[in-house]
Amino acid sequence: PPHCEEYMGKNVSTPKHVALARKLAEASIVMLKNEGEVLPLGASAVKKIAVIGGAADAKAYNPNGAGQGGGGAWNTGDFYSGGGSGHMVSGNLVTPLAGIRRRAEAEGMEVIASATNDIGAAEHAASHADVAIVVVGTTSGEADDRKSLSFGSDSERLIRAVAGKCDKVVVIMEVCGPVVMPWRGDVPAILAMFLGGQEAGNAWAGVLFGDSSPT
Q1: What stretch of H or E contains 193?
Q2: Which residues pair with 144 in a beta bridge?
Q3: Is the peptide bond before 40 cis (omega within 30 degrees of 0)?
Q4: Strand, coil or helix: what is 50?
């Protein structure tokens, strides 16, 4: 309709909206593996946490500007929202790193961040942590098939490299559908979240620290 730019661009978010977004994101998390009771994380056993991977602090993709992968194609998705006509660009995104860091620091834990897929940096971070959390992700877009069910060689090499430096590795996957996990035997804990939206980071933190239960 005409003269709707101001209305359509208005921030109508409320605390209730944010709470609902977090609740839905937490409900989308599925625990696939938890050997040795690595989770939930607790201050009595964990003093240092490494948060590793480019997906740990990935920005939302904006088709009209910069973001995860840059601006451009209308149907490109990100780790938080599918791509295409239903894609939402959140101005209040909580990344996995931000959510986990906030929750860990509330417990007095130190967070070692390596928010890239650089193997050397990941190994260094993991070797100094009691628990290493590796964040990986996939995206999807309208009218465009995914080329593979894999996370890609960089992510798979990253997981295996971290597993070689830390005994307690948690892989958290931000996914849009089925994935293959040839590395699943190398790590004790794996969880998946399906397009968690703006509260993805806080939802991850809630489940990892036992504030809420995964599916």
Answers
A1: strand 189-194
A2: 141
A3: yes
A4: strand
